[in-house]
Design a protein that fits this description.
The structure is a single chain. The N and C termini lie far apart (75 Å). The chain is an alpha/beta fold. Strands 3, 4, 5, 6, 7, 8, 9, 10 and 11 form a nine-stranded mixed β-sheet that branches. Strands 1-2 form a two-stranded parallel ribbon. The protein is 49% helix and 10% strand. The radius of gyration is 27 Å and the shape is elongated. This is Sulfatase N-terminal domain-containing protein. It comes from Microlunatus aurantiacus.
């Protein structure tokens, strides 16, 4: 009897287990799942000889679904989205590299072995529970039918009335069935998206326009595109974080105005959150919505005219400064860079700063040095991600005078604790949020300091957040909006974007316009660079 009760409780718990773990999601356990009732009805009508194999198959399905839910818990915590059964398998090598780098080879193997044991245990437990209950149903057929009928009637009544023991979760639960249907639809959608995106790749309004005609309004002007890691709307909307960030932006607006800079700011909706920066970079530069690895691979294999590619074709020297890259980056070919400088070739001789070994002030100084080599006759375009504000947001470097950065050898060694990015999931959330705010304040202060010593008359700057930080900072369902700022010293450039309705200064107002990130390429080319699409 006790074993039967344990099997029933286990099966119900596995079916009600949510795919993300917040305080409200735990309320999903205050429910009655319909799946055991449907499974019991199926076993009742089946011949006795096939009940056990069907019960075992049902248990295996429950075990696999539970394993998927647990994977989704991790994905929601880190990336604010579920695991994609079609596309996310390509991330597994990166997970292995992350585990090796943060735990060491032996420990990483033990962690993976432990995960395998957990999955096997879930499968075995689910199969045991369904087989046990199947035997109970066979041994007590008539009482079991009455119990199933009673539970089914109660479930239908609760569903009809909409009873909720813990709002917003209904007592009459079909969450596992809904999950399976959603996964099937997602798989089908992922498989169908390849052809749909191929058509989007081919439909480029600028593909037949000569490159010189795409940049008539910026001839002789240097261009700098800055992606600020994890710079999301939460940095301005959350009072605790904004206390560290908004003073930097407001004072930065005043300081840059004194040196000839003007700024306009708005918001973009990023295709990703919590991670996947390369998807955001690809979206902004290509003018296409790149929200998964399949689309990214299709883009990389295409001849799509990216924003950097347009300037390269028009005669700009294009340089990608990539401080987070530690090896060759063949995907960079789609951006038509003349030169890619990664962490191995940046010439940084200073102390490491945890995951983001190269501090943003050095990256900005290197970008400034590259831009100095350009001229009106041979302008330069630089694209760089700033990565100090990458998780785990500690340690935070000390800001110095930009003139004193040099090769970085004189920078102060890190005083905080270096931790792997995934450490944010186990630390005190209030501490994580404070570290996040401090890291952004450092990066944004560095941008202001670098631009304040850079001539504003022949440079246009796009500074944009790539995505919101992890949910441990934003909380659940925070959205994917990120700030974007356009800076220039030439008033004519800012006049061209007057119709955008963006906020004056480095800090966008809360009601500033929100575009999708894939709109930037075309809007920049038409309104700022003077292109006319065909």
């Amino acid at each position: 009897m006790l074993g039967d009760l344990l099997a029933a409780v286990l099966l119900v718990a596995l079916l009600l287990l949510p795919d993300r773990l917040t305080r409200t999601d735990l309320g999903s356990f205050a429910a009655v799942p319909i799946e055991p009732v449907l499974g019991g009805v199926l076993l009742v009508v089946l011949p006795a000889g096939v009940r056990q194999p069907v019960a075992a198959a049902f248990g295996g399905l429950v075990g696999l679904l539970t394993a998927l839910k647990l994977v989704d818990v991790g994905f929601y915590a880190a990336l604010a989205r579920p695991f994609d059964l079609v596309l996310d398998w390509t991330l597994l090598p990166g997970v292995w590299v992350l585990l090796q780098g943060s735990l060491g080879g032996v420990t990483a193997v033990l962690v993976l072995a432990g995960l395998a044991v957990v999955v096997a245990t879930l499968l075995a437990a689910a199969v045991w529970a369904t087989l046990r209950l199947s035997r109970l149903l066979t041994a007590h057929h008539e009482p079991a039918v009455r119990v199933l009928a009673a539970i089914g009637a109660c479930w239908l009544a609760c569903a009809a009335v909409g009873v909720r023991a813990v709002p917003p979760y209904p007592v009459a639960s079909a969450s596992s069935t809904t999950k399976i249907i959603g996964e099937v639809r997602a798989v089908r959608e992922g498989l169908a998206d390849r052809e749909r995106f191929a058509a989007e790749l081919a439909a480029d309004r600028f593909s037949s326009v000569p490159a010189d005609d795409l940049v008539t309004g910026l001839r002789g002007t240097q261009v700098l595109v800055i992606f600020v890691e994890s710079y999301g709307r939460v940095a301005l909307a959350d009072p605790a974080i904004a206390a560290a960030v908004t003073p930097v932006l407001d004072e930065g607006t005043r300081r840059l105005a004194r040196t000839g800079w003007q700024a306009r700011s708005g918001y973009l909706t990023s295709p990703t959150a919590g991670g996947g920066s390369w998807l955001a970079h690809a979206t902004l530069l290509s003018g296409l919505w790149i929200d998964d690895q399949q689309r990214y691979r299709q883009l990389v294999a295409s001849d799509r005219r990216t924003l950097t590619g347009v300037f390269a074709e028009a005669g700009w020297r294009t340089v990608g400064i990539m401080p987070g890259n530690t090896s060759a980056w063949p995907d960079g070919a789609v951006y038509r860079y003349d030169e890619i400088r990664d962490s191995r070739s940046l010439g940084y001789a200073g102390p490491p700063y945890g995951w983001a070994r190269v501090p943003d002030q050095y990256t900005l100084a290197e970008a400034g040095r590259v831009l100095e080599t350009g001229s009106p006759a041979a302008p330069t375009m630089v694209v760089t991600p700033l990565i100090t504000s990458h998780a785990p947001w500690t340690p935070v470097p000390t800001l110095v005078d930009p003139a004193a950065v040099g090769d970085g050898s004189g920078l102060t060694p890190a005083t905080g604790t270096a931790e792997p990015p995934e450490a944010i999931l186990t630390r005190d959330p209030s501490r994580v949020r404070a570290d996040y705010g401090r890291s952004l304040a450092y990066t944004l202060s560095g941008v202001v300091a670098q631009l304040a010593r850079t001539p504003a008359d022949d440079l246009v700057v796009i500074m944009v957040g790539d995505h919101q930080p992890a949910p441990v900072v934003t909380g659940p369902d925070a959205g994917r909006d990120v700030p974007i700022t356009l800076l220039a010293g030439d008033p004519a450039v800012l006049e061209r974007v007057r119709t955008w309705g963006w906020t004056t200064g480095l800090r966008p107002k809360g009601d500033a316009p929100v575009w999708r990130m894939d709109a930037v390429r075309d809007r920049f080319l038409t309104d700022v660079a003077g292109a006319t699409p065909r």
